[in-house]
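Appendix B. Worked example

We walk through a single record from start to finish. Start with the input: the chain for Glycosyltransferase, hydrocarbon metagenome, length 348.
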Amino acid sequence: MKIAVCAVQVPFVKGGAEYHFDNLYAELLKRGYDVEYIKIPFKWYPPEEIVNHALIWRLLDLSESNGMKIDGVIAQKFPSYLVRHPNKVVWLLHQHRTAYDLAHTEMDDLLPYGKLGEVVRQKIYKMDNLGLNEARKIYTNSGNVAGRLWRYNKIAGEPLYHPPPLMGQYRCESYDDYIFYPSRVDAIKRQDLAIKCLQHCNSNIRLKIAGTGPHLDYVRSLAKECGVDDRVDFLGFVSEKELLDLYANAATVVYVPLDEDMGYVTLEAFLSKKPVITCADSGGPLEFVEDSVNGFIAAPSPESIAEKVQQLFENGLCEKMGQNGYRKVSSMNLSWDNVIKKLLEPMQ
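Next comes the structure step. The output line below is what the pipeline stores for this chain.
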């Protein structure tokens, strides 16, 4: 069976979405499928580039190659799912969010372009409705993404959870006196809330932030401004071994993004037997975090997050809640066998 895995790639950027489809490609190969990985660069500025890059996907002919039929395609996020194929399955990571839930917010990168931005936003709606409705089946990487798809496009998607990249390697060694926040450093990830919360926590509690991104200089300066720079470790990019070690020895993981699609962080933390503190508006993590059971759901404020951190440390709850998180994720049937069976069924 010949399968084309279609992925959007912002050059020199690698995060959860990229690891997600890298792993899908590798797992299909392991099972003997004839797979081609098709990546096309994506640029979203100025807004007309969004339309240009969408057209690249739309103009591709993946029905056959070198006289051989391509049996199916699996696409992930905008605009890859605009590709035409009679056996198109979409595993939706997210749409172009500034056209939807982030529209007319401070994170709306179309808004500064005025009328042009609005024209492109309308085109994105139309392209999504066309490309997604062509699919034989739409899976999503979380219930949150499925909810957005129905809310804005009235298109149904079925959540399909998958194992995080280092499944089988996560472990727990200790509960040291630090909070861990691994993620791309970007405004939407809200590392600023974790930094500010330290002002309201015991002075022995540290914060370790792993990751790089456009917001890094801002959060570094924020730590100094808040007087906690001596308690925050900016680790930058970390290797897989370092990541596993950081999870293994953290007291807790704080993961407080704004309306996250899904995020590996919560699952990785639970597999490392660590409780997770997230926020009531954090989206994807709320599908896994049960308040006061395997973590805490805080209000999106430094004071509320700090209160939950203090509860964990002062009441010795890290190990108990971490174990509860591990039991939760262990019951979820996170296997690539299940994922691939689901993805290929509609192509049969």
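Two observations about the output. The mean pLDDT is 97. Residues 178-330 form a domain with the Rossmann fold fold (CATH 3.40.50.2000).
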